[in-house]
Design a protein that fits this description.
79 residues; mainly alpha; 4 helices
Length: 79
């Protein structure tokens, strides 16, 4: 939808925050999940992979590792 903010949920904002804090180093989806748990935010690993995939497709300049790309394929099959 026009004007829709794809990054509006609290979980997505937290994932973006983690990515911004980690911009100079590689971070895995599992590490993002652990940081979210430390922030008292439980997010399913599949949700993290879906969001990383969406960010990359939206042109957010993510340089995803093979591990993350493989996780996206593995965790989002059939969705």
């Amino acid at each position: 939808m026009a004007g829709e903010n794809h990054y509006a949920t609290a979980s997505r904002r937290k994932i973006l925050e983690i990515l911004k804090e980690s911009k100079d180093k590689t971070v895995t989806a599992a590490q993002i999940g652990e940081k979210l748990r430390q922030m008292d935010s439980e997010v399913n690993i599949t949700t993290i992979y879906r969001y990383l995939d969406r960010l990359e497709k939206d042109g957010e300049g993510l340089n995803l590792t093979w591990e993350v790309r493989n996780g996206i394929v593995t965790h989002t099959k059939g969705t």
